[in-house]
Amino acid sequence: MYRSLSIIGLFAILFCGTALTACGQDNQGPMAPPPKFEVKRIPSVPHPGPPPIPEQEIIRRFAANEDTAKKVYESYDFEQTIRIEELTNPGGKFTVTGEEYTRPDGQRFWRVVKPAESTLKVTHYSFEDVRTITTLPTFFLTSDQIANYNFLYAGQQKLDELNTYVFQVKPKQLSRTQRLFQGVVFVDDHDLAIVETYGKFVTEVIEEGAKLPFSLFETYRENFQDKYWLPTYTTSDDYIGSSADDQFPLRLVIRSSDFKPNASVAPVSAAPSNGPTKN
C-alpha cells in the first residue's frame, strides 16, 4: 500500500521544498509524485516547541533503525533506471537502465542491462556523461555517522498519512575522504525511521571529471516488509545553459525497482525493539 508525503520548505540557504511521495510495498518502486501541493515554509532558524520525545532520543533511535536499513538495502540486488528529462517544448528524454548488485566478495557494482536511449532535443548525454550519477552516495544516517553532524529540530509536519519530526542536518566540518549530507530529513513519528531526505552532498575536495547540473536531491523511501524504510526514488530539478538568457530546465529521476535478495549476502534480522513508540 502506498503512503504519500508532501514536502515542506526548509533550510533556506539551500532550497525550498516540493511535493513528494513515499510508498510502502515489498518489491516495486514508487509511483510518480502526485500533483504539487501547497508549500508550507519554515524559517531558516525555526523555533518549534519541544517534541513529545527528547530530541536526542529521536536521533538515537532513527540512527539505530538506519543501521539495520543500510544492511537490508545492501542485501538486495535491484534494477535502477536513470532518466534525464528536458522540461522544454519540444523536449526529450535520456534513459539508461542498469542493475546494482553485490559480488561474492561483498563489493557493490552497477552494470548496464539495457542500452541507453535518447530523444533529447536541446542537449546531449551519453551513459559515460551520466556515469557519475551511479556513484552518488546512498544516504543512511547511521549510528557511526551522527557524530559528524549538527542537528536542528524544526518541528513536526503532517505529510499526508504520516506524522513526521523534521530535522535540519549539517556537517560539523567537511571531509576530504567522503561526501557528507547537508539538508533536511523527515522522521516518521511511529517507526522513528527516516522516510524522506532533501539536500546535497558536500566535500572539502573540488571534484573533477564529468559534471551534471544537478546538486539538490530529493529521495523518497518505501516501507519494505512493514519494517524497513529504504530509498527507492530520487529526483532533482536544475537548469543548464551558458547564460541566463538561454538556460532551460532539466529533471533527473533515479528509480529503483525489482528488489531481490542477493544469494551471497546473509539475511538481516530485524532491529531490536527501541521501546514503545507514539501511535
Overview of the molecule:
With 279 residues, this protein is mostly beta strands. It has one domain. It contains two helices and twelve strands, in the order ββαβββαβββββββ. Strands 1, 2, 3, 4, 5, 6, 7, 8, 9, 10, 11 and 12 form a twelve-stranded mixed beta sheet that branches. A hairpin with a 7-residue loop joins β11 (228-240) and β12.
End-to-end separation in angstroms reads 19 Å
**Rough outline:** globular
Flag low-confidence runs.
1-29, 34-43, 270-279
Percentage of residues in helical conformation:
under 10%
Q: How many β-strand stretches?
A: 12
Radius of gyration: 19 Å
| Sheet with most strands | 12 strands, mixed
- SSE string: EEHEEEHEEEEEEE
> Oligomerization state of this entry?
single chain
Instruction: State mean pLDDT (0 to 100 scale).
Output: 81
Structural class: mainly beta
Briefly summarize what is shown.
The protein is mainly β and 279 residues long. 9% of the residues lie in helices and 42% in strands. The protein has one domain (2-261).
Please give the structural blueprint:
Elements: E1 2-6, E2 19-24, H1 55-74, E3 76-86, E4 93-102, E5 108-118, H2 127-130, E6 149-159, E7 162-171, E8 180-188, E9 194-202, E10 217-224, E11 228-240, E12 248-261
Parallel strand pairs: 2-10
Antiparallel strand pairs: 1-2, 3-4, 3-12, 4-5, 6-7, 7-8, 8-9, 9-10, 10-11, 11-12
